[in-house]
Specification:
The protein is built from 16 helices and 23 strands. The protein folds into four domains: 35-147, 3-Layer(aba) Sandwich (Glutaredoxin), CATH 3.40.30.10; 152-244, Glutaredoxin, CATH 3.40.30; 247-359, Glutaredoxin; 381-483, Glutaredoxin. The protein is globular. The strands form six sheets. A six-stranded mixed beta sheet has the order 3-4-6-5-7-8. Strands 12-14-13-15-16 form a five-stranded mixed beta sheet, covered by helices on one side. The protein has a five-stranded mixed beta sheet with strand order 17-19-18-21-22. α3 packs across α5 (136-147) and α7 (181-192) packs across α8 (235-246). Helix content is 29%, strand content 19%. The model is unreliable at 1-27, 215-219 and 496-515 (pLDDT under 50). The chain has 519 residues and is α/β, with parallel strands linked by helices. β10 (171-174), α7 (181-192) and β11 (198-201) form a beta-alpha-beta unit. It is an enzyme of class 5 (isomerase). One of its GO terms (biological process) is protein folding. It holds the Pfam family Thioredoxin_6. It catalyses: Catalyzes the rearrangement of -S-S- bonds in proteins. Keywords: Chaperone, Disulfide bond, Endoplasmic reticulum, Isomerase, Redox-active center, Repeat, Signal.
Length: 519
Protein backbone atom coordinates (compact mmCIF):
# COMPACT_ATOMS: atom_id res chain seq x y z
CA UNK A 1 0.00 0.00 0.00
CA UNK A 2 2.81 2.41 0.87
CA UNK A 3 4.58 1.68 -2.41
CA UNK A 4 1.37 2.07 -4.37
CA UNK A 5 0.73 5.48 -2.85
CA UNK A 6 4.31 6.50 -3.58
CA UNK A 7 3.93 5.55 -7.23
CA UNK A 8 0.61 7.38 -7.46
CA UNK A 9 1.87 10.48 -5.65
CA UNK A 10 2.75 12.62 -8.72
CA UNK A 11 -0.53 11.76 -10.47
CA UNK A 12 -2.60 12.65 -7.41
CA UNK A 13 -0.78 15.93 -6.85
CA UNK A 14 -1.84 17.85 -9.98
CA UNK A 15 -4.61 20.34 -10.58
CA UNK A 16 -6.47 20.85 -13.81
CA UNK A 17 -6.23 24.41 -15.22
CA UNK A 18 -7.29 25.54 -18.66
CA UNK A 19 -7.61 21.95 -19.77
CA UNK A 20 -4.03 21.10 -18.83
CA UNK A 21 -2.63 19.17 -15.87
CA UNK A 22 -0.24 21.31 -13.87
CA UNK A 23 1.88 19.25 -11.46
CA UNK A 24 2.66 20.68 -8.04
CA UNK A 25 6.22 21.81 -7.56
CA UNK A 26 8.33 19.06 -6.03
CA UNK A 27 9.22 19.63 -2.41
CA UNK A 28 12.87 18.89 -3.09
CA UNK A 29 14.87 18.89 -6.31
CA UNK A 30 17.56 16.25 -6.01
CA UNK A 31 21.07 17.13 -7.18
CA UNK A 32 24.56 15.83 -6.57
CA UNK A 33 24.95 18.12 -3.57
CA UNK A 34 25.98 16.30 -0.39
CA UNK A 35 23.75 17.10 2.56
CA UNK A 36 24.20 15.93 6.15
CA UNK A 37 21.84 15.01 8.98
CA UNK A 38 23.59 14.66 12.36
CA UNK A 39 26.97 14.16 10.63
CA UNK A 40 25.51 11.39 8.40
CA UNK A 41 25.48 11.98 4.64
CA UNK A 42 22.01 11.75 3.09
CA UNK A 43 22.51 9.81 -0.13
CA UNK A 44 20.43 9.12 -3.22
CA UNK A 45 21.05 8.11 -6.82
CA UNK A 46 22.01 11.67 -7.86
CA UNK A 47 24.79 12.22 -5.32
CA UNK A 48 25.98 8.68 -4.63
CA UNK A 49 28.89 8.79 -7.11
CA UNK A 50 30.03 12.13 -5.74
CA UNK A 51 30.04 10.77 -2.19
CA UNK A 52 32.17 7.82 -3.28
CA UNK A 53 34.63 10.06 -5.10
CA UNK A 54 35.03 12.48 -2.16
CA UNK A 55 35.24 9.92 0.67
CA UNK A 56 37.59 6.96 0.33
CA UNK A 57 35.91 5.12 3.24
CA UNK A 58 32.13 5.38 3.29
CA UNK A 59 29.88 3.14 5.38
CA UNK A 60 26.33 3.32 4.05
CA UNK A 61 23.20 2.25 5.91
CA UNK A 62 20.33 1.19 3.64
CA UNK A 63 17.18 1.63 5.70
CA UNK A 64 13.39 1.80 5.57
CA UNK A 65 11.62 4.61 7.47
CA UNK A 66 9.07 2.17 8.94
CA UNK A 67 11.69 -0.37 10.12
CA UNK A 68 11.90 -0.55 13.93
CA UNK A 69 15.50 -1.83 13.89
CA UNK A 70 16.47 1.11 11.65
CA UNK A 71 14.79 3.58 13.97
CA UNK A 72 16.69 2.18 16.95
CA UNK A 73 19.98 2.22 15.04
CA UNK A 74 19.60 5.83 13.81
CA UNK A 75 20.84 7.67 16.96
CA UNK A 76 23.69 5.16 17.39
CA UNK A 77 24.74 5.60 13.76
CA UNK A 78 24.63 9.40 14.13
CA UNK A 79 26.74 9.37 17.31
CA UNK A 80 29.32 7.13 15.63
CA UNK A 81 29.46 9.53 12.67
CA UNK A 82 30.02 12.44 15.04
CA UNK A 83 32.85 10.64 16.82
CA UNK A 84 34.59 9.94 13.51
CA UNK A 85 34.13 13.55 12.39
CA UNK A 86 35.58 14.88 15.66
CA UNK A 87 38.63 12.67 15.15
CA UNK A 88 39.09 14.02 11.61
CA UNK A 89 38.91 10.43 10.41
CA UNK A 90 38.79 9.72 6.66
CA UNK A 91 35.92 7.35 7.46
CA UNK A 92 32.43 8.74 6.86
CA UNK A 93 28.92 7.41 7.36
CA UNK A 94 25.99 7.80 4.99
CA UNK A 95 22.42 6.59 4.69
CA UNK A 96 20.04 5.68 1.87
CA UNK A 97 16.26 5.42 2.19
CA UNK A 98 16.01 2.15 0.25
CA UNK A 99 12.23 2.44 -0.12
CA UNK A 100 12.61 5.75 -1.99
CA UNK A 101 15.83 4.88 -3.83
CA UNK A 102 14.80 1.63 -5.48
CA UNK A 103 17.55 1.79 -8.10
CA UNK A 104 20.28 1.87 -5.46
CA UNK A 105 18.56 -0.83 -3.39
CA UNK A 106 18.38 -3.11 -6.43
CA UNK A 107 21.95 -2.38 -7.50
CA UNK A 108 23.35 -3.44 -4.13
CA UNK A 109 20.98 -6.34 -3.50
CA UNK A 110 19.24 -4.89 -0.46
CA UNK A 111 16.66 -7.39 0.81
CA UNK A 112 16.45 -6.54 4.52
CA UNK A 113 16.78 -3.52 6.78
CA UNK A 114 19.03 -2.18 8.00
CA UNK A 115 21.86 -3.35 5.70
CA UNK A 116 25.28 -1.72 6.09
CA UNK A 117 27.92 -1.76 3.33
CA UNK A 118 31.39 -0.25 3.20
CA UNK A 119 32.59 1.42 -0.02
CA UNK A 120 36.36 1.88 -0.37
CA UNK A 121 38.34 4.11 -2.71
CA UNK A 122 35.32 4.95 -4.86
CA UNK A 123 34.73 1.28 -5.77
CA UNK A 124 31.03 0.91 -6.43
CA UNK A 125 31.02 -2.70 -7.63
CA UNK A 126 32.42 -4.58 -4.63
CA UNK A 127 31.22 -3.09 -1.33
CA UNK A 128 32.17 -4.90 1.86
CA UNK A 129 29.46 -6.16 4.22
CA UNK A 130 29.59 -4.66 7.70
CA UNK A 131 30.51 -7.28 10.29
CA UNK A 132 30.97 -5.23 13.46
CA UNK A 133 28.79 -4.62 16.49
CA UNK A 134 25.75 -2.37 16.21
CA UNK A 135 26.82 0.10 18.89
CA UNK A 136 28.77 3.36 18.78
CA UNK A 137 32.07 1.88 19.92
CA UNK A 138 31.70 -1.11 17.60
CA UNK A 139 31.01 1.03 14.51
CA UNK A 140 33.81 3.48 15.32
CA UNK A 141 36.39 0.75 15.96
CA UNK A 142 35.40 -1.12 12.81
CA UNK A 143 35.85 1.99 10.71
CA UNK A 144 39.06 3.05 12.45
CA UNK A 145 40.60 -0.35 11.78
CA UNK A 146 39.91 0.16 8.08
CA UNK A 147 41.11 3.75 8.02
CA UNK A 148 44.62 2.82 9.12
CA UNK A 149 46.87 -0.24 8.89
CA UNK A 150 45.05 -3.11 10.59
CA UNK A 151 48.28 -4.27 12.26
CA UNK A 152 51.05 -2.26 13.94
CA UNK A 153 54.59 -2.79 12.66
CA UNK A 154 56.81 -3.69 15.62
CA UNK A 155 60.23 -2.47 14.55
CA UNK A 156 62.35 -2.97 17.66
CA UNK A 157 62.46 -4.68 21.04
CA UNK A 158 61.09 -1.70 22.97
CA UNK A 159 58.09 -1.34 20.65
CA UNK A 160 57.40 -5.07 20.82
CA UNK A 161 57.59 -5.18 24.63
CA UNK A 162 55.25 -2.21 24.98
CA UNK A 163 52.79 -3.70 22.51
CA UNK A 164 52.65 -7.07 24.26
CA UNK A 165 52.00 -5.34 27.59
CA UNK A 166 49.32 -3.01 26.20
CA UNK A 167 46.36 -5.36 26.68
CA UNK A 168 45.50 -8.75 28.13
CA UNK A 169 45.26 -10.29 24.67
CA UNK A 170 47.35 -9.27 21.66
CA UNK A 171 48.17 -11.02 18.39
CA UNK A 172 51.59 -10.87 16.76
CA UNK A 173 52.37 -12.16 13.28
CA UNK A 174 55.96 -12.99 12.27
CA UNK A 175 56.46 -12.69 8.49
CA UNK A 176 59.63 -12.48 6.45
CA UNK A 177 57.56 -10.90 3.67
CA UNK A 178 54.87 -8.42 4.71
CA UNK A 179 53.60 -8.32 1.13
CA UNK A 180 53.25 -12.10 0.94
CA UNK A 181 49.97 -14.02 0.81
CA UNK A 182 50.10 -15.19 4.45
CA UNK A 183 50.67 -11.63 5.71
CA UNK A 184 47.76 -10.35 3.62
CA UNK A 185 45.47 -12.97 5.18
CA UNK A 186 46.71 -11.85 8.60
CA UNK A 187 45.84 -8.22 7.76
CA UNK A 188 42.41 -9.34 6.56
CA UNK A 189 41.67 -11.11 9.86
CA UNK A 190 42.98 -8.10 11.77
CA UNK A 191 40.47 -5.92 9.93
CA UNK A 192 37.60 -8.07 11.20
CA UNK A 193 38.60 -8.59 14.83
CA UNK A 194 38.62 -4.94 15.79
CA UNK A 195 38.60 -5.52 19.56
CA UNK A 196 42.02 -7.19 19.50
CA UNK A 197 45.33 -5.35 18.79
CA UNK A 198 47.36 -6.93 15.97
CA UNK A 199 51.08 -6.44 15.43
CA UNK A 200 53.51 -7.67 12.78
CA UNK A 201 57.22 -8.38 12.98
CA UNK A 202 59.54 -8.50 9.98
CA UNK A 203 62.98 -8.02 11.55
CA UNK A 204 64.66 -11.42 11.85
CA UNK A 205 66.46 -10.43 15.04
CA UNK A 206 63.10 -10.06 16.80
CA UNK A 207 61.78 -13.50 15.90
CA UNK A 208 63.36 -15.18 18.93
CA UNK A 209 63.82 -12.15 21.15
CA UNK A 210 63.50 -12.71 24.92
CA UNK A 211 60.74 -10.12 25.30
CA UNK A 212 58.09 -12.45 23.89
CA UNK A 213 56.29 -13.91 26.92
CA UNK A 214 56.94 -17.63 27.46
CA UNK A 215 53.91 -19.96 27.65
CA UNK A 216 54.14 -20.23 31.45
CA UNK A 217 54.18 -16.48 32.18
CA UNK A 218 50.41 -15.92 32.19
CA UNK A 219 47.38 -17.81 33.44
CA UNK A 220 46.73 -19.12 29.96
CA UNK A 221 50.19 -18.52 28.52
CA UNK A 222 51.07 -17.97 24.92
CA UNK A 223 49.39 -19.82 22.07
CA UNK A 224 51.41 -20.35 18.90
CA UNK A 225 49.79 -20.78 15.51
CA UNK A 226 52.43 -22.00 13.06
CA UNK A 227 51.72 -21.46 9.36
CA UNK A 228 52.11 -24.47 7.08
CA UNK A 229 54.05 -23.22 4.03
CA UNK A 230 52.19 -25.68 1.78
CA UNK A 231 48.68 -24.81 2.98
CA UNK A 232 49.26 -21.18 3.76
CA UNK A 233 47.34 -19.24 6.41
CA UNK A 234 43.64 -20.06 6.64
CA UNK A 235 41.60 -16.96 7.60
CA UNK A 236 38.64 -18.90 9.00
CA UNK A 237 40.86 -21.16 11.10
CA UNK A 238 42.85 -18.24 12.48
CA UNK A 239 39.69 -16.25 13.20
CA UNK A 240 38.18 -19.15 15.15
CA UNK A 241 41.35 -19.60 17.20
CA UNK A 242 41.45 -15.91 18.07
CA UNK A 243 37.77 -15.75 18.95
CA UNK A 244 38.22 -18.71 21.28
CA UNK A 245 41.22 -17.14 23.01
CA UNK A 246 39.54 -13.74 23.27
CA UNK A 247 37.08 -15.32 25.72
CA UNK A 248 37.90 -15.78 29.38
CA UNK A 249 38.76 -19.34 30.31
CA UNK A 250 35.61 -19.44 32.47
CA UNK A 251 32.75 -17.10 31.57
CA UNK A 252 29.96 -15.93 33.84
CA UNK A 253 26.54 -15.90 32.18
CA UNK A 254 25.32 -12.29 32.41
CA UNK A 255 23.37 -9.83 30.31
CA UNK A 256 26.68 -8.42 29.06
CA UNK A 257 28.27 -11.78 28.15
CA UNK A 258 25.30 -13.76 26.81
CA UNK A 259 25.74 -12.70 23.18
CA UNK A 260 29.48 -13.38 23.36
CA UNK A 261 28.87 -16.86 24.80
CA UNK A 262 26.32 -17.91 22.20
CA UNK A 263 28.25 -16.46 19.24
CA UNK A 264 31.54 -18.13 20.22
CA UNK A 265 30.84 -21.18 18.00
CA UNK A 266 32.37 -23.54 20.56
CA UNK A 267 30.65 -26.93 20.10
CA UNK A 268 30.08 -27.77 23.78
CA UNK A 269 29.22 -25.70 26.85
CA UNK A 270 29.94 -26.96 30.37
CA UNK A 271 27.71 -25.18 32.87
CA UNK A 272 28.13 -24.87 36.62
CA UNK A 273 24.85 -23.77 38.21
CA UNK A 274 25.43 -22.25 41.63
CA UNK A 275 24.01 -19.79 44.12
CA UNK A 276 26.52 -16.94 44.37
CA UNK A 277 25.24 -15.98 47.80
CA UNK A 278 26.61 -19.28 49.14
CA UNK A 279 30.34 -19.21 49.93
CA UNK A 280 30.45 -23.02 49.88
CA UNK A 281 29.07 -23.08 46.33
CA UNK A 282 31.37 -20.28 45.18
CA UNK A 283 34.34 -22.41 46.27
CA UNK A 284 33.33 -25.03 43.69
CA UNK A 285 34.58 -22.70 40.96
CA UNK A 286 38.19 -23.64 41.76
CA UNK A 287 37.87 -27.20 40.50
CA UNK A 288 35.72 -26.00 37.61
CA UNK A 289 38.40 -23.53 36.47
CA UNK A 290 41.18 -26.09 36.92
CA UNK A 291 39.43 -28.42 34.47
CA UNK A 292 38.74 -25.76 31.85
CA UNK A 293 42.21 -25.41 30.33
CA UNK A 294 42.24 -29.00 29.07
CA UNK A 295 39.29 -28.37 26.71
CA UNK A 296 40.03 -24.88 25.38
CA UNK A 297 38.24 -24.40 22.05
CA UNK A 298 36.24 -27.62 22.39
CA UNK A 299 34.25 -26.87 25.55
CA UNK A 300 33.32 -23.43 26.90
CA UNK A 301 33.07 -23.32 30.70
CA UNK A 302 30.26 -21.09 32.01
CA UNK A 303 29.14 -20.24 35.54
CA UNK A 304 25.40 -19.61 35.93
CA UNK A 305 24.06 -17.82 39.00
CA UNK A 306 20.66 -19.40 39.71
CA UNK A 307 19.52 -16.36 41.71
CA UNK A 308 20.74 -13.77 39.20
CA UNK A 309 20.61 -13.39 35.43
CA UNK A 310 20.84 -17.17 35.01
CA UNK A 311 17.47 -17.76 36.67
CA UNK A 312 15.73 -17.24 33.31
CA UNK A 313 17.47 -20.21 31.69
CA UNK A 314 16.68 -22.74 34.43
CA UNK A 315 13.42 -23.98 32.85
CA UNK A 316 15.35 -24.89 29.68
CA UNK A 317 17.26 -27.41 31.80
CA UNK A 318 14.31 -28.47 33.95
CA UNK A 319 16.01 -26.95 36.99
CA UNK A 320 15.02 -24.76 39.92
CA UNK A 321 17.30 -22.68 42.21
CA UNK A 322 17.07 -25.47 44.78
CA UNK A 323 18.91 -27.83 42.40
CA UNK A 324 22.14 -25.83 42.71
CA UNK A 325 24.94 -26.69 42.74
CA UNK A 326 24.77 -28.91 39.69
CA UNK A 327 26.61 -29.43 36.39
CA UNK A 328 25.35 -29.84 32.83
CA UNK A 329 27.17 -30.24 29.53
CA UNK A 330 25.32 -29.07 26.41
CA UNK A 331 26.09 -30.16 22.85
CA UNK A 332 25.28 -26.97 20.96
CA UNK A 333 24.46 -28.48 17.55
CA UNK A 334 21.35 -30.25 18.86
CA UNK A 335 20.91 -28.90 22.43
CA UNK A 336 21.48 -32.36 23.92
CA UNK A 337 22.15 -32.08 27.65
CA UNK A 338 24.33 -34.37 29.77
CA UNK A 339 24.10 -34.53 33.56
CA UNK A 340 27.09 -35.25 35.75
CA UNK A 341 26.51 -37.16 38.98
CA UNK A 342 27.61 -34.77 41.67
CA UNK A 343 29.52 -37.03 44.07
CA UNK A 344 32.39 -34.59 43.66
CA UNK A 345 33.12 -31.33 41.88
CA UNK A 346 36.85 -31.97 41.59
CA UNK A 347 38.72 -31.02 38.43
CA UNK A 348 39.58 -34.69 37.87
CA UNK A 349 35.94 -35.77 38.03
CA UNK A 350 34.87 -32.94 35.70
CA UNK A 351 37.58 -33.80 33.15
CA UNK A 352 36.66 -37.49 33.24
CA UNK A 353 32.97 -36.73 32.71
CA UNK A 354 33.56 -34.34 29.81
CA UNK A 355 35.90 -36.75 28.04
CA UNK A 356 33.35 -39.53 28.41
CA UNK A 357 30.69 -37.35 26.78
CA UNK A 358 33.05 -36.39 23.94
CA UNK A 359 33.85 -40.09 23.43
CA UNK A 360 30.15 -40.92 23.14
CA UNK A 361 30.08 -42.98 26.34
CA UNK A 362 27.37 -40.98 28.14
CA UNK A 363 23.70 -40.89 27.20
CA UNK A 364 21.97 -37.51 27.13
CA UNK A 365 19.77 -36.50 30.02
CA UNK A 366 16.26 -36.06 28.64
CA UNK A 367 13.66 -33.89 30.34
CA UNK A 368 10.15 -35.25 30.76
CA UNK A 369 7.08 -33.79 32.39
CA UNK A 370 4.66 -36.05 34.24
CA UNK A 371 1.70 -37.19 32.10
CA UNK A 372 -1.71 -35.78 33.08
CA UNK A 373 -4.04 -38.39 34.61
CA UNK A 374 -6.42 -38.18 31.64
CA UNK A 375 -3.71 -37.90 28.98
CA UNK A 376 -5.04 -40.86 26.92
CA UNK A 377 -8.77 -40.19 27.32
CA UNK A 378 -8.77 -36.79 25.60
CA UNK A 379 -9.45 -36.45 21.85
CA UNK A 380 -5.90 -35.07 21.52
CA UNK A 381 -3.56 -37.33 23.50
CA UNK A 382 -1.10 -35.42 25.70
CA UNK A 383 2.35 -36.98 25.34
CA UNK A 384 5.42 -36.42 27.50
CA UNK A 385 8.98 -37.63 27.11
CA UNK A 386 8.45 -40.85 29.08
CA UNK A 387 5.24 -41.85 27.20
CA UNK A 388 6.19 -40.74 23.71
CA UNK A 389 7.70 -43.96 22.38
CA UNK A 390 4.89 -46.26 23.59
CA UNK A 391 2.38 -44.14 21.64
CA UNK A 392 4.25 -42.83 18.60
CA UNK A 393 6.04 -46.12 17.89
CA UNK A 394 2.95 -48.33 18.29
CA UNK A 395 2.96 -50.30 15.01
CA UNK A 396 -0.83 -50.76 15.14
CA UNK A 397 -1.54 -47.03 15.04
CA UNK A 398 -1.10 -44.12 12.66
CA UNK A 399 0.03 -41.34 15.00
CA UNK A 400 -0.02 -37.64 14.09
CA UNK A 401 1.90 -35.51 16.63
CA UNK A 402 2.11 -31.76 17.08
CA UNK A 403 5.33 -30.56 18.75
CA UNK A 404 4.68 -27.10 20.18
CA UNK A 405 5.77 -24.41 22.62
CA UNK A 406 3.19 -22.75 24.89
CA UNK A 407 4.48 -19.26 24.00
CA UNK A 408 4.47 -19.86 20.22
CA UNK A 409 1.92 -17.64 18.44
CA UNK A 410 1.73 -19.96 15.42
CA UNK A 411 0.95 -22.89 17.73
CA UNK A 412 -1.76 -20.88 19.43
CA UNK A 413 -3.28 -19.97 16.04
CA UNK A 414 -3.63 -23.64 15.00
CA UNK A 415 -4.71 -24.97 18.43
CA UNK A 416 -8.45 -24.93 17.62
CA UNK A 417 -7.91 -26.79 14.33
CA UNK A 418 -5.85 -29.46 16.10
CA UNK A 419 -8.53 -29.95 18.75
CA UNK A 420 -11.18 -30.25 16.03
CA UNK A 421 -9.03 -32.82 14.26
CA UNK A 422 -8.81 -34.82 17.50
CA UNK A 423 -12.61 -34.74 17.85
CA UNK A 424 -13.02 -35.91 14.26
CA UNK A 425 -10.78 -38.96 14.71
CA UNK A 426 -11.30 -39.83 18.40
CA UNK A 427 -13.34 -42.94 17.52
CA UNK A 428 -10.90 -44.27 14.88
CA UNK A 429 -9.09 -47.28 16.28
CA UNK A 430 -6.01 -46.90 14.08
CA UNK A 431 -5.52 -43.10 14.18
CA UNK A 432 -4.15 -41.12 17.11
CA UNK A 433 -3.95 -37.33 17.26
CA UNK A 434 -1.43 -36.20 19.86
CA UNK A 435 0.65 -33.25 21.03
CA UNK A 436 3.87 -32.77 22.99
CA UNK A 437 5.19 -29.64 24.71
CA UNK A 438 8.78 -29.56 23.43
CA UNK A 439 9.87 -26.97 25.98
CA UNK A 440 9.27 -29.46 28.84
CA UNK A 441 10.03 -32.76 27.09
CA UNK A 442 13.02 -34.00 25.10
CA UNK A 443 13.38 -37.03 22.82
CA UNK A 444 16.55 -38.95 22.11
CA UNK A 445 16.27 -39.35 18.34
CA UNK A 446 14.05 -36.43 17.33
CA UNK A 447 15.29 -32.83 17.34
CA UNK A 448 12.75 -30.03 17.06
CA UNK A 449 14.11 -26.79 15.60
CA UNK A 450 10.94 -24.70 15.34
CA UNK A 451 7.30 -24.54 16.37
CA UNK A 452 4.93 -25.92 15.52
CA UNK A 453 6.48 -29.06 13.99
CA UNK A 454 4.11 -31.82 12.85
CA UNK A 455 5.30 -35.43 12.45
CA UNK A 456 3.29 -38.43 11.22
CA UNK A 457 4.23 -41.95 12.35
CA UNK A 458 2.51 -44.52 10.07
CA UNK A 459 1.43 -47.95 11.29
CA UNK A 460 3.35 -51.07 10.39
CA UNK A 461 6.89 -52.41 10.82
CA UNK A 462 9.86 -50.49 9.48
CA UNK A 463 7.86 -47.29 9.39
CA UNK A 464 9.49 -43.93 8.71
CA UNK A 465 8.52 -40.65 10.29
CA UNK A 466 7.00 -38.14 7.87
CA UNK A 467 7.15 -34.38 8.48
CA UNK A 468 3.95 -32.56 7.54
CA UNK A 469 4.61 -29.23 5.81
CA UNK A 470 1.32 -28.21 4.25
CA UNK A 471 -1.59 -25.99 5.25
CA UNK A 472 -2.64 -26.07 8.89
CA UNK A 473 -6.40 -26.52 8.62
CA UNK A 474 -8.68 -29.42 9.51
CA UNK A 475 -9.61 -30.36 5.95
CA UNK A 476 -6.03 -30.54 4.73
CA UNK A 477 -5.03 -32.50 7.84
CA UNK A 478 -7.87 -34.95 7.12
CA UNK A 479 -6.84 -35.41 3.49
CA UNK A 480 -3.32 -36.16 4.70
CA UNK A 481 -4.54 -38.80 7.17
CA UNK A 482 -7.05 -40.42 4.81
CA UNK A 483 -4.36 -40.70 2.15
CA UNK A 484 -1.97 -42.59 4.43
CA UNK A 485 0.39 -39.78 5.34
CA UNK A 486 0.62 -37.99 2.00
CA UNK A 487 -1.52 -35.40 0.32
CA UNK A 488 -3.31 -36.48 -2.87
CA UNK A 489 -1.97 -34.86 -6.00
CA UNK A 490 -4.01 -31.90 -7.12
CA UNK A 491 -5.04 -31.71 -10.81
CA UNK A 492 -2.79 -29.39 -12.79
CA UNK A 493 -3.89 -25.78 -12.73
CA UNK A 494 -5.75 -24.58 -15.82
CA UNK A 495 -4.02 -21.52 -17.33
CA UNK A 496 -6.11 -18.40 -17.08
CA UNK A 497 -7.66 -17.14 -20.27
CA UNK A 498 -10.31 -14.50 -20.86
CA UNK A 499 -12.81 -17.37 -21.23
CA UNK A 500 -12.06 -19.25 -17.99
CA UNK A 501 -10.73 -16.48 -15.72
CA UNK A 502 -12.76 -15.96 -12.57
CA UNK A 503 -11.25 -12.56 -11.98
CA UNK A 504 -9.95 -13.76 -8.57
CA UNK A 505 -6.33 -12.99 -7.77
CA UNK A 506 -4.05 -15.86 -6.77
CA UNK A 507 -2.84 -15.80 -3.16
CA UNK A 508 0.40 -13.96 -2.64
CA UNK A 509 3.57 -15.50 -1.24
CA UNK A 510 2.79 -13.86 2.08
CA UNK A 511 -0.57 -15.60 2.20
CA UNK A 512 0.70 -19.07 1.34
CA UNK A 513 4.17 -19.20 2.91
CA UNK A 514 4.45 -21.45 5.96
CA UNK A 515 5.75 -19.67 9.03
CA UNK A 516 6.76 -20.93 12.42
CA UNK A 517 8.70 -19.79 15.45
CA UNK A 518 12.30 -20.92 15.16
CA UNK A 519 14.30 -21.95 18.21
Amino acid sequence: LVLSLAWLGPALGGEEEDGEVVEEEEAEVLSDELREEDSVLVLHEHNFDRALSEHRLLLVEFYAPWCGHCQRLAPTFARAATVLRNESSPAWLGKVDATAQAALANEFGITSYPTLKLFRDGNRTHPLAYTGRMDVEGIVRWMQRRASPSATLLQDAATATAFVSSQDLVVVGFFKDLEGEAAQVFYEVAGELVDVPFGVVKAAELFQAPHWPPPWQFDEGRTDFPVDPARGLDAAELTRLLRVHSLELVMEFTNETSDEIFSAKIPHHMLLFLNKSSSAQLALQDGFRAAAGSFRGEVLFVVVDVTGFGADVLPFFGLTPADAPTLRLVKMENNRKYRMDQDTFSDTAIRTFIQAVLDGKVKPHLMSAEPPEDWDTRPVKVLVGKTFEQVAFDETKNVFVKFYAPWCSHCQAMAAAWEELGERYKDHEDIVIAELDSTANELENITINGFPTLHYFPAGPGRKMVEYKSARDVETFSKFLENGGTLPEEPPAVPKTPENSTGREEPSLLETAESRDEL
